[in-house]
Specification:
The structure is a homodimer.
Chain A: H1 8-23, E1 34-35, H2 43-49, E2 57-62, H3 68-84, E3 87-92, H4 98-110, E4 115-118, H5 127-135, E5 139-143, E6 155-157, H6 160-175, E7 179-184, H7 190-206, E8 210-216, H8 222-235, E9 239-244, H9 247-260, E10 265-269, H10 273-280, E11 286-290, H11 292-308, H12 317-320, E12 328-330, E13 333-336
Parallel strand pairs in A: 2-3, 2-4, 4-5, 5-6, 6-12, 7-8, 7-9, 9-10, 10-11
Antiparallel strand pairs in A: 11-13
Helix pairs in contact in A: 3-11, 6-7, 8-9
Chain lengths: 347, 347
């Protein structure tokens, strides 16, 4: 019944009619539930229905490929790949250069894999490469960063705006709901901007005695982050919190606060091992971390589900050239503290 | 390697160490990609890893069980269940009464199924029943509506606020960006409130020549919706749009506009067959519809993934008593028009 055909809607009518019969008489308290499958299928059929073939290859493609963040994502990608019985590989470029990552992506495409989970360093640079891969029958999904104007089947990410709000609640609790705040941000990066926007919106809404008094941009440079923080503390000796949109900024701020011997607390994002070390020794109060394992796991599940063609939404997705599966998944976030820090090391 | 243990973190260290070895030397342009699985597994192992057992039973539980909306959800639930090789059943109560739905839910729990996908009619009424089921080893996920204070593993839903914004863009295009608007709403229902809020926010942000001039509550009563609409047209003969948060309201508004012989257009939500009929005959301009098939499909996938214990996020989920999988999934939305209406019938 789930054979992929060019006429999904016609197939659906058959399913719908079968279902309609199944639903008739299925009342609540009185009738016994109606079994609407024809019984579970034989193992071989199930394999055909969902699991992959042992020769199927799936790739994960990143930039700054050695960064700790991706290791957690690949753990989840591989967990799903192993469970589905397919091979999983990891490739990326060594820096954030878009042309270099496109070259790696095209190397992967040339291998004709079944699917690619991609975190594009620049959205626009990947529109054509992704579309070409999709047209060649290679499924592409995005995770972490996105290429929304491409034909990628879905996007799996964290809700950074929401994270900012939760970070504000956490910090407010730690500060007793009052105090001056310094911010280190990267406004050009969408996800970083959302971390700041969500934080500021929540402060404005719920914490009238907390106030942002200084902000700066360290551009991912730990030393610069430290000197910006030192200047902020000099101008505001009673600074209560440094809120930083990334780990490098958080580490720099932590070092500066320690040197200044003030009571300011530091909150940042992305639990790289060096950040966790500083959370554990108290230099950084806490760190918000995307659930990277879920990010990778559901990237693989999305690719496989798309490839198997087992979901037939009643919609115009084929005519409209859109994906048949979910449009976006929120992979969730955790707050890493001294108490739970050990669980987040990925070395 | 994915055997469920009480010490997920310890297991992870093994995985992490294996992975670390796999990642070393995996550079971009020069080196060949490192195969990080030990090869795909034999069929029997894959079955053990992901697919269900043929005797496993999964239930979907709703209220107003005969409503068309659920039929699409169950199609997706069954598609996933069939692919995974488990039995799927549908039960619900006949009206929106919370006590009656709780009774049906408890009937299902007594059958000791592997999992239940639940759309609770009242969030609070289900906190204890859900928690009891989870403690008894029966996985529960929510879809459409939620019970956020319970221990349900996840929530699969539409982003109604975002839908409201997309509806505003669609209506603005149809009206040439200007005109008076009447609203029929149900402010007590969270998802309906979001449909209105998202719409109004987008109008305010992008369409200065569109203005809400009247609003009313028909409480799901088609006749009341028609008379409210008639009154709005009488007070504003040049009314350009009736924006309605549900299908009953949309059908009532459509009938009233037709009788008044004005040029007002009607936009509503939830593509029940009677609504599609009116979209097709031009009484209703268009209708926003959640992707119900994805809602059901991913409810099953979430339950199965949780039960198999194959995802081990690097986080404090076990200590914190939270779910190991994604916190929320957006199942997507479609705009149903005269052109694509036929694809959305579920009879």
């Amino acid at each position: 019944m789930f054979v992929k055909t060019g006429r999904g809607i016609t197939m659906l009518l058959v399913i719908v009619m079968t279902l309609a019969i199944g639903l008739i008489g299925c009342t609540s308290e009185t009738a016994a539930p109606k079994e609407t499958t024809t019984g579970a299928k034989a193992a071989a059929e199930v394999m055909a229905g969902f699991a992959g073939s042992p020769t199927d290859e799936y790739y994960m493609c990143t930039f700054y490929q050695g960064a700790d963040y991706w290791k957690g994502v690949f753990i989840g990608f591989k967990q799903a790949g192993d469970a589905l019985g397919v091979k999983t590989f990891y490739m990326g470029c060594d820096d954030g250069d878009a042309a270099k990552q496109v070259a790696v992506f095209e190397q992967i495409v040339a291998k004709k894999p079944k699917g690619i989970a991609l975190s594009p360093t620049v959205a626009d640079a990947f529109v054509e490469p992704i579309n070409k891969a999709m047209e060649a029958g290679i499924a592409v999904s995005c995770f972490a960063s996105d290429s929304p104007d491409s034909k990628r089947i879905t996007w799996i990410t964290s809700d950074d705006y929401r994270a900012g709000g939760e970070a504000a609640d956490f910090c407010a609790k730690a500060l007793g709901g009052k105090g001056k705040i310094g911010i280190l941000e990267r406004p050009a990066q969408n996800n970083h901007a959302a971390r700041i926007d969500g934080f500021e919106a929540r402060i404005k809404e719920k914490y009238p005695d907390m106030k942002v008094v200084a902000r700066g941009q360290a551009e991912g440079d730990q030393t610069k982050a430290a000197s910006l923080t030192s200047a902020m503390i000099q101008a505001n000796p009673d600074l209560a919190l440094m809120y930083c949109s990334a780990g490098m900024e958080g580490m720099g701020a932590g070092t500066a606060v320690k040197e200044a011997k003030t009571n300011a607390k530091v909150f940042c994002y992305d639990a790289d091992p060096a950040v966790i070390d500083m959370v554990k020794d108290g230099t950084i109060l806490a760190c918000m971390h995307p659930n990277t394992v879920n990010q990778g796991f559901w990237s693989m599940m999305a690719l496989m589900t798309y490839n198997k063609g087992i979901i037939n939404p009643i919609s115009d997705w084929k005519q409209a050239g859109r994906s048949p599966i979910f449009p976006m998944m929120n992979n969730g976030l955790d707050i890493v503290t001294k108490d739970n820090g050990d669980a987040f090391y990925v070395k």
